[in-house]
């Protein structure tokens, strides 16, 4: 079993008697990307701020294992890209990067060299001596990302790194996050783009209204789910709709002229299901698969909201 | 608190702001404009007054012109007593033969009213000319009254007053210059550094970099670094002003002869530094509770007015530096720096008062640093709203120390 770099136990934070974070526990393994998910207002940012020592918890323990044994927070070994982020817009890009790296313990000369290297990688070398306010929003976000990782942290906390990015930059950031993992850097990733999370994360920790909901690898979470997603493409419908609506194990059925979507209980045998429907239409294609993270998120959080 | 973090913040803020237009304008341009505004009129007047002028005197009485020749012998007016018609002489003045024509009639001896025809009216300072002519008139009238020139000289001898303290020491009007200057510098450096400190804090909140900073260091370290940096900027500013001020002053005054007591500077320093520290903390903490720069500017105005109140009420303190009012002000931490800076220059403040006020200021400064740091820490992440009074009370109640 791999070693933890961060262990959170019973973390709790109250605001005016309301529990923004209520007794959450999880671990982040060294070298993994842990998806820290939840709807808006779930308590993710509050939990992250407590982990980083920016806010004080009302209860709970936070232990770091940077060198194997439990120890206190060491801000110099963590990189943080907050959701509410910005840099000095009236300072030169390179100067800002060197300063932020210096606050993480990187000597100015080393910080300068590394910053120039990263700016080169991000195609921003020519903007090193420009003031940040002269850069486009996408460029500014790249600079913010550089500031997060410039000091070679052991743990990187990314809170909504894809927000405000165009699809090209989203892919760029996705690749960068994967490269961090390749370099052995642990990532705690909070994001709303479930497709990205599904592609990037080794494990998921989902909270809602300050309490933990789901925790485990994507496969484990999908296995816990009792329904498969079914997508059918057909022509010459001969009673398919009637049949699907009659199924006790099916729900969320949506039928169009040439396609149908539904949720089907995992207990239903796929082969016999395909056998049944092939007689009720001309089957063009069928996809039966475990639910996506997006569906699980909507399903789980939506159900709780209804309750 | 980690010294390395404080030092990194201090260096960054210092380097960033020392090159900023605000600092450069406030440090160099404004004093230059003020100096120009102060010196230029005097310089122009001086240039005007040294310029030699030829003045025709047409004296129909023949009484005043001889006296004027004597009284104006050492002035910049070169008198030429002339005869002829007024129109002809005025024409000659117009032809550059003289700068002006003073016309004295019989009536002038009674009413004192004369006419001066100038080639260029702007070239004559009427008040200066009047002051120069006045003694001649006075002398003429005294002569008419039968008073001799010796008696006249005796009458005009002015009164003078020398002040001594009861201990026999001569009163030195320059003694309180240094503490008063220190007080003024505290005032100005607070005005400047407090303002840019507040703007810096509000800006970090507004552009959202604050959360990135707090993930690297504690709020107390950030606060300490800022206070050090802006204190350094204020000191540099004062050094520049003092250097320029002294070099200008030495052109007019021999500083060695006026008996400045430089030891007072050392007595003034603790009040200066502690005063700055307390108020800078207050500025930063207040700025952290603000939502935008506009509210920050208004709050800054209020903050720096409070400690400077004694300077505005300087008269009662200077009239009775050991009086009840001055003493009460000395023991109110907000007023201590300015009041004590004034008092130690004017009078000999009892040693126990110096020790007691210094201690009160020290303790209250430490207290302010602690309270200020908590408010600063608690308010920084309130991006979209100003901290309410209830919020601030909540911040002060927190017992857990921040994790660094």
Give a description of the structure:
The complex is a heterodimer of chains A (307) and B (404). The longest helix of chain A is centred in the middle third of the chain and has 16 residues, at 167-182. Chain A is globular and about 75 Å long. Chain A has helices at residues 44-51, 93-103, 108-121, 137-149, 167-182, 194-200, 218-224, 240-246, 270-278, 293-306, and strands at 4-15, 18-29, 33-37, 59-64, 78-81, 155-159, 186-190, 203-208, 211-217, 227-235, 250-255, 259-265, 282-289. Chain A has a six-stranded mixed sheet with strand order 5-6-7-3-8-9, sandwiched between helices. In chain A, 35% of the residues lie in helices and 30% in strands. In chain A, helix 2 (93-103) crosses helix 3 (108-121). Chain A is of the alpha/beta class. Chain B is mostly helical and 404 residues long. Chain B folds into two domains: 3-35 and 172-397, no CATH class; 52-149, Periplasmic binding protein-like II (D-Maltodextrin-Binding Protein, domain 2). In chain B, strands 2-1-3-4 form a four-stranded mixed sheet, with helices on both faces. In chain B, helix 8 (177-206) runs antiparallel to helix 10 (219-252), helix 11 runs antiparallel to helix 15 and helix 12 (293-312) packs parallel to helix 15. In chain B, 32% of the residues are buried. The interface between A and B is medium-sized, with 30 and 24 residues.
């Amino acid at each position: 079993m791999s070693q933890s770099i961060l262990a959170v136990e019973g973390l709790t934070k109250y605001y005016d008697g309301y529990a923004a974070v209520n007794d959450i526990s999880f671990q982040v393994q060294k070298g993994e990307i842990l998806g820290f998910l939840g709807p808006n207002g779930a308590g993710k940012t509050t939990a992250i701020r407590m982990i980083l020592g920016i806010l004080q918890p009302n209860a709970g323990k936070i232990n770091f294992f940077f060198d194997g044994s439990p120890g206190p927070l060491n801000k110099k070994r963590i990189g943080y890209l907050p959701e509410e982020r910005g840099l000095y817009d009236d300072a030169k890009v390179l100067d800002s990067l060197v300063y932020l790296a210096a606050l993480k313990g990187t000597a100015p000369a080393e910080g300068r060299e590394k910053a120039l290297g990263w700016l080169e990688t991000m195609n921003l070398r020519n903007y090193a001596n420009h003031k940040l306010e002269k850069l486009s929003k996408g460029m500014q976000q790249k600079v913010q990302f550089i500031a997060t990782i410039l000091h070679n942290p052991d743990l990187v906390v990314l809170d909504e790194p894809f927000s405000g990015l165009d699809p090209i930059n989203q892919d760029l950031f996705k690749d960068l996050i994967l490269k961090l993992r390749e370099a052995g850097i642990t990532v705690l990733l909070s994001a709303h783009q479930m497709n990205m999370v599904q592609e990037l994360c080794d494990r998921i920790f989902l909270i809602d209204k300050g309490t933990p909901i789901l925790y485990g690898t994507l496969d484990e979470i999908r296995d816990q789910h009792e329904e498969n997603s079914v997508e059918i493409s057909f022509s010459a419908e001969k009673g398919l709709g009637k049949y699907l609506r009659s199924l006790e194990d099916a729900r969320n059925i949506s039928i169009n002229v040439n396609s149908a979507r539904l949720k089907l209980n995992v207990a239903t045998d796929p082969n016999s299901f395909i056998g049944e429907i092939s007689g009720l239409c001309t089957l063009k294609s069928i996809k039966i698969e475990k639910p996506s993270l997006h569906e699980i998120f909507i399903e789980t959080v939506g159900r709780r909201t209804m309750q | 608190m980690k010294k390395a973090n404080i030092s990194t913040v201090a260096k960054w803020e210092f380097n960033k702001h020392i090159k900023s237009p605000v600092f450069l304008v406030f440090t160099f341009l404004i004093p230059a404009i003020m100096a120009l505004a102060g010196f230029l009129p005097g310089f122009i007047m001086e240039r005007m007054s040294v310029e030699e002028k030829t003045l025709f005197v047409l004296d129909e009485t023949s009484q005043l012109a001889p006296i004027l020749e004597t009284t104006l012998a050492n002035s910049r007016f070169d008198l030429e007593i002339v005869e002829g018609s007024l129109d002809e002489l005025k024409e000659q003045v117009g032809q550059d033969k003289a700068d002006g024509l003073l016309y004295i009639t019989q009536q002038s001896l009674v009413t004192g009213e004369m006419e001066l025809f100038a080639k260029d009216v702007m070239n004559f300072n009427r008040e200066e000319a009047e002051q120069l002519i006045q003694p001649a008139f006075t002398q003429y009238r005294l002569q008419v009254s039968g008073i001799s020139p010796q008696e006249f000289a005796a009458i005009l001898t002015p009164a003078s007053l020398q002040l001594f303290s009861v201990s026999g020491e001569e009163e030195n009007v320059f003694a309180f210059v240094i503490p008063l200057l220190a007080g003024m510098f505290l005032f100005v450096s607070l005005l400047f550094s407090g303002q840019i400190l507040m703007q810096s804090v509000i800006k970090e909140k507004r552009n959202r970099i604050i959360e990135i900073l707090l993930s690297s260091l504690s709020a107390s370290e950030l606060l300490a670094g800022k206070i050090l940096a802006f204190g350094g900027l204020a000191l540099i500013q004062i050094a520049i002003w003092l250097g320029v001020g002294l070099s200008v002053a030495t052109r007019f005054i021999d500083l060695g002869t006026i008996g400045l007591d430089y030891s007072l500077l050392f007595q003034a320093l603790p009040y200066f530094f502690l005063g700055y520290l307390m108020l800078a903390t207050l500025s930063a903490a207040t700025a952290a509770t603000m939502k935008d720069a506009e509210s920050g500017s208004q709050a800054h105005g209020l903050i720096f007015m409070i400690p400077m109140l004694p300077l505005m009420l300087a008269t009662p303190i200077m009239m009775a530096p050991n009086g009840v009012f001055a003493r009460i002000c000395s023991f109110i931490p907000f007023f201590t720096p300015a009041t004590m800076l004034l008092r130690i220059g004017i009078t000999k403040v009892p040693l126990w008062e110096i020790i007691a006020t210094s201690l009160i200021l020290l303790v209250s400064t430490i207290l302010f640093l602690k309270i200020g740091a908590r408010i600063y820490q608690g308010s920084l992440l309130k991006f979209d709203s100003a901290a309410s009074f209830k919020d601030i009370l909540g911040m002060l109640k927190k017992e857990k120390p921040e994790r660094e």
